[in-house]
């Protein structure tokens, strides 16, 4: 009995001596791990493969807008290596007018936007992707984030399709709008959430812009990536598939693809249609998605 007591006492004393000797090291390791976690080092996306700028392109057999022959490069749905960061004041991208869609022609525009934690409600109105001449006879077609009512807006033919999304999350979100020549549909992360009848639209085929506020004070601030424009109204199934393919997804319907701007380190168009954008004051950063 006494031997067992002495043995337990010895083990307890050894454990205490171990903790006193190495406890400081354990505390330091715990602090370091906590800091690394806060920095996003253990975020799964941090270890995901990232595609270099221009690593995936669309090849066309003739001139821009001609027959599509397929993809060129590594198009495996990897995360982009960079994302475009706009300062909300002086940064934007201008795109050739040849990429615009005029009149009441069908279209689809899909884009990934990053919303930091705490900004899924109450964020200010900011223009993401627009074409047309704001305030003139040529009405603007403009996809915007919301306002104090947590809405998403597509301004088209002098009016708004406004919807309050329920599928927004903190982080990256895919926002898409389709138009079939008579009706608009709004999507968030692959789910249709808004619609509006919009007959006889009149939007001139003028230059497109990314993150430039047409009303003067709606400049976008934050990250934008993988913007795609089609001259067809994609069905819900394709919008959902495009979302599920992820942030680095290549376009699905190459036949109707007008422009593809991954914003992965530059503002070039990788659709094969040469609708390259010209960035002004835009920074392309790898420090996103954390």
Structure characterization notes:
By secondary structure, the protein is α+β, with helices and mostly antiparallel strands. It folds into 2 domains: about 1-40; about 50-285, Jelly Rolls (Sandwich), CATH 2.60.120.200. It contains 3 helices and 19 strands. A hairpin with a 7-residue loop joins β9 and β10 (about 150-155). The longest helix is centred in the first third of the chain and has 37 residues, at about 1-40. The protein is globular and about 85 Å long. The relative contact order is 0.22.
What's the structural blueprint in terms of helices and strands?
Elements: H1 2-38, H2 44-47, E1 50-51, E2 56-60, E3 68-73, E4 79-80, E5 83-87, E6 92-95, E7 107-115, E8 127-131, E9 141-144, E10 152-156, E11 159-163, E12 171-179, E13 183-188, E14 191-197, E15 208-210, E16 221-230, H3 236-244, E17 257-261, E18 277-280, E19 283-285
- Can you tell me the CATH topology of the largest domain? Jelly Rolls
Strand content: 25-35%
User: Span between N and C termini?
Assistant: 58 Å
User: Which class of secondary structure composition applies to the elements?
Assistant: alpha+beta
CATH class of the largest domain: Mainly Beta
Compute the number of strand runs.
Answer: 19
Summarize this entry quickly:
The chain has 290 residues and is an alpha+beta fold.
List keywords for this structure.
290 residues, alpha+beta, Jelly Rolls, 2 domains, eight-stranded antiparallel beta sheet, seven-stranded antiparallel beta sheet, 3 helices, 19 strands, 17% helix, globular
């Amino acid at each position: 009995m006494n031997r067992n007591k002495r043995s337990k006492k010895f083990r307890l004393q050894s454990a205490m001596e171990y903790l006193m000797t190495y406890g400081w090291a354990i505390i330091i390791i715990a602090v370091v791990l906590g800091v690394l976690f806060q920095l996003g080092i253990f975020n799964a996306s941090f270890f995901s493969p990232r595609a270099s700028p221009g690593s995936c392109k669309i090849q066309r057999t003739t001139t821009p807008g001609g027959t599509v022959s397929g993809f060129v490069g590594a198009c495996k749905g990897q995360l982009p290596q960079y994302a475009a960061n706009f300062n909300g004041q002086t940064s934007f991208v201008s795109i050739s007018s040849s990429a615009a869609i005029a009149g009441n022609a069908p279209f689809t525009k899909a884009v990934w936007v990053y919303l930091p934690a705490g900004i899924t409600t109450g964020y200010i109105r900011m223009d993401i992707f627009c074409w047309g001449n704001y305030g003139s006879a040529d009405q603007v077609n403009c996809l915007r984030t919301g306002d104090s009512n947590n809405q998403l807006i597509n301004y088209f033919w002098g009016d708004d399709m406004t919807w309050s999304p329920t599928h927004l999350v903190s982080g990256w979100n895919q926002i898409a709008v389709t138009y079939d020549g008579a009706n608009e549909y709004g999507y968030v992360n692959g789910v249709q959430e808004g619609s509006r009848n919009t007959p006889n639209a009149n939007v001139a085929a003028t230059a497109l812009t990314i993150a430039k506020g047409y009303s003067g004070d709606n400049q976008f601030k934050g990250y934008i990536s993988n913007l795609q424009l089609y001259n067809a109204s994609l069905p819900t199934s394709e919008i959902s598939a495009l979302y599920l393919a992820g942030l680095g997804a290549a376009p699905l319907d190459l036949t109707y693809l007008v422009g593809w701007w991954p914003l992965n380190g530059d503002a070039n168009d990788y659709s094969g249609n040469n609708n390259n954008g010209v960035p002004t004051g835009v920074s392309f950063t790898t420090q996103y998605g954390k």
